[in-house]
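Long-time lurker. I teach an intro course on protein structure, and each term I like to show students one example going from raw sequence to a predicted 3D structure in token notation. This year I'd like something fresh instead of my usual example. Would anyone be willing to generate the tokens for the chain below so I can use it in lecture? Attribution to the forum is fine with me.
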Amino acid sequence: MSPPGYRHARVGVRFAAAFYTFGETAGHGEACGEVGVLLRQNPDYLVGPDAAFISKPSCPPQLSPEGYLLTVPDLVVEVRSKNDTQSEVDEKVRDYFGAGVVLVWVADPTARTVTAYRVKQFPAVSAAGDTLTADPVIPGFAVPVADLLPA
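-- Reply from a regular --
Happy to contribute to a lecture. Here you go:
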């Protein structure tokens, strides 16, 4: 895949910064920006979430010889691109859940929404006027969607 564009990357870094501020500095785990994650091996299935958070019990994370995460993050963010279809998004979410991710956020910069996916729950959509929380992955995380997805 080609590298993300500027707006896409800016959204990803906002999520990573929030994970660092509310999660890592509070001792809940480790935050990452865009990172390669090996969801499966033999054959390898490498994905690149735009931001991720690994909870403290899984730290320090295990890495492949190439430096990709072998430890599956507890929370991942996918910034939706204009060409992403809903079926592609749904497939990514299923793949993440199959690997053990607890919480998947799909951020849509155009609609200024974040859809939260949790195993065995209906997706929850948060709009610009809402506050996003990450319990139980990052206790105390509370950030306005508008701060993560500026107009």
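Some talking points for your students: The first strand starts at residue 29 and ends at 32. The chain has one domain: 6-144.
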